[in-house]
Specification:
4 helices; mainly alpha; 59% helix; 83 residues
């Protein structure tokens, strides 16, 4: 929950993996022009498309909920296999 609320404060600079990918491929130019290397439903953690802090928080909460749900589903499937 804290991560979702703090997500609007994150740096706009690319992280190490993104910067290395830009250097290693010719896609760096597309990223600098506002394009994306991979299309996603909520690119740049922006669920509303307007770049507001609220849409960033919403994208973080939805993303965390999806990951939690997938993790619980995987754990349930693995526990059924053992039983």
């Amino acid at each position: 929950m804290i991560a979702a609320l703090a997500s609007p404060l994150a740096s706009e600079s690319p992280d190490g993996l993104e910067a290395a990918l830009e250097r290693a491929t010719d896609e760096g130019a597309a990223v600098e022009e506002g394009g994306h290397l991979v299309d996603s439903p909520w690119s740049d953690y922006d669920a509303g498309g307007d770049g507001s802090p609220g849409s960033t928080i919403l994208a973080g909460v939805i993303g965390a909920a999806v990951v939690l749900a997938l993790g619980l589903l995987l754990a349930k499937l693995l526990s059924l296999k053992k039983a």
